[in-house]
Amino acid sequence: MSDNNRNDNPNDLRAAAPAPSSNWERETLERLVFATVREQRAARRWGIFFKLSFLLLAFFAIWAYFDFNFGSSDIEALGRHTALIEIDGAIEDEGSGAADTVIPSLNKAFSDPGSAAVVLRINSPGGSPVQAGIIVDEIQRLKKGYPNKPLYVVVDEICASGGYYIAAAADKIYVNKASIVGSVGVLMDGFGFTGLMDKLGVERRLLTAGENKGFLDPFSPQSDKQKQHALEMLNEIHEQFIAVVRAGRGKRLKETPEIFSGLYWTGAKAVEMGLADGFGTVDTVARDVVKAEDIIDYTAHEGLPERVLKKFGASVGAGAVHSIYRGAVPSLR
């Protein structure tokens, strides 16, 4: 391009540049206003969030306070009454069937001068012989310490195995005609995966120090020696169970070859066999047997803090591992 065609006029350059908007002040102001509104909305949302969080914490604190303290004040205010303790579910190291849960309730119920008798309502398919045995030992101790305060068991749907292990220590057992009662036996269950592993070409690499350290490992073949040892343990625990039933039921028990075989029966049949004493509910036992219609619940209910901690705590992983290997221990169920 020649120098003659070059436009060096500065006025022409200013004319070619875009003219600034005549409303730039208004646009800038609008942007500032919108930004301020957004900040205020965000601040308002965070304020609502923190206020709701505070209210929830306050609500939980009040709930926990009444959960721990309200029941005890009711007990102190009443006179003669029937003390109630509930076992609902499996007899395990946690929950309403755990020894650490039942025993404090038993001690509180027996030691209360206003309790005329203790009623243990059981709805359990069984569970740990250890937990059941600990509870039975404590019942026997308390019965010696409070000879004039009877302990009755009322069966709801089912009282089998470990549940009946505990019930047998009571002075009397009351059932519904259709309740499931009995199952005086012990089992140890699990699975063996060796055949499936062979088909899949999976090799089990288990290293142990001790010939029987891998006892009942589900991924290893079961030896006759280990099986015999397991059966001996089960028979020993079964004899302990039988001894508790015989001691608790005494001459009321009409023994047959099948009564300790692990079978269970209806409540009506259990009464005939001497496994139970009669028909009744908590209300009828309190009214007609104890003669104290006021019923006070001594069951140690889990408080809100424990429920929250268990729900969000790190015990979930441990519980999963525990459930995987639960079949490798004897069980009354």
Describe the structure.
By secondary structure, the protein is of the alpha/beta class. Helices cover 50% and strands 13% of the residues. The protein is built from eleven helices and eight strands. Strands 1, 2, 3, 4, 5, 6, 7 and 8 form an eight-stranded mixed β-sheet that branches. The longest helix is centred in the first third of the chain and has 54 residues, at 24-77. The radius of gyration is 35 Å and the shape is flat. The chain crosses the membrane at residues 48-66. Belongs to the peptidase S49 family.
Q: Give the helix tally.
A: 11
Q: Report the order of strands and helices.
A: HHEHEHEHEEHHEHEHEHH
The share of residues in helices is: 40-55%
Please tell me the overall pLDDT: 78
Which ranges are low-confidence, i.e. pLDDT below 50, for 5 or more consecutive residues?
1-5, 68-75, 304-327
Family: Belongs to the peptidase S49 family.
Organism: Telluria antibiotica
Keywords: Hydrolase, Membrane, Protease, Serine protease, Transmembrane, Transmembrane helix
Domain Peptidase S49: 148-290
